[in-house]
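Holo model, S-adenosylmethionine. Inputs:
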Amino acid sequence: MENYSTKEIVEKYGFKFTKSLGQNFLIDDTVLLDIVEGAEVDKDDFVIEIGPGVGTLTKVLLSRAKKVCAIELDSKLIPILQEELKEHANFQLIHKDALKVDYKELIGEEKSVKVVANLPYYVTTPIISKLITEGYNFKSLTIMIQKEVAERIAAKPCNKDYGALSLLVQYYCNTKILRKVKKESFIPSPKVESMVIRLDKLEKPKAFVEDEKLFFKVIRDSFSMRRKTLNNGLKNLGLNKEELLEAFDKSGIDPKRRGETLSIEEFASLSNEIYRINK
Ligand code: SAM
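Output:
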């Protein structure tokens, strides 16, 4: 289903797209509705939208949420958004890089906070990583991202897409792919296919971890050379051969396994044993 308002607004203001800002605007109403319905936005929600573009998704969000705060970096879009959304008393616009926003201050006392966005693809991973690891009070993130990144985020052990990004996101969130989106649903059409994915923040991380920095280093080292067994990949963690074997033994993990076969819980117990031996 085509949405005429995006194209009309772009033409009305003579807006010129900036490729380096990841500007691919949605023109498909079905996708817009699937994003908002997938996010289950309702009247109690404070919604943060990153990269509102000309405000197409923003308008649908404004009709359902208590308040929508949109963060846009491109100064050319600020007057357009101010004009097009001036009727909405529940709209707030922040002209800033989404990676530099103080989300703690922005959220304040809000209880039901949801992020909903068609993300600029050049900063997908840093934005997701910032939002989920810095301890903000979000309920969920419902975001459109590149198909291959969505598949990596949602992948389970032994799948070819499973890696450090899957573990980072699944440590903090439950993940659910909501739908695929064709290139033709955007102007201009991006080079890659897209997907809408929902990340529900867990009350506490998926596994008990003594030292998160070490946990993520163990994960990174385990995947740095995918073909290597764990025994060979984990040589730079400050343990000698015997100590490393002891960590494998105590966590019940065969050192000949490869990183891509380990669950979050197994990485947690292996890194906890390494932490105890190192202490
Ligand atoms: N929400 C609109 C839509 O769905 O049609 C536009 C989505 S477009 C993929 C991404 C938007 O993010 C653009 O408006 C772009 O200017 C904005 N943007 C790019 N980098 C940004 C950043 N670092 N912080 C905030 N917004 C950014």
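The two ends are 60 Å apart (CA to CA). The pocket of S-adenosylmethionine is lined by residues 21-26, 50-53, 56-57, 71-74, 77, 97-99, 118, 120, 123 (CB under 6 Å).
Archived with the compound record.
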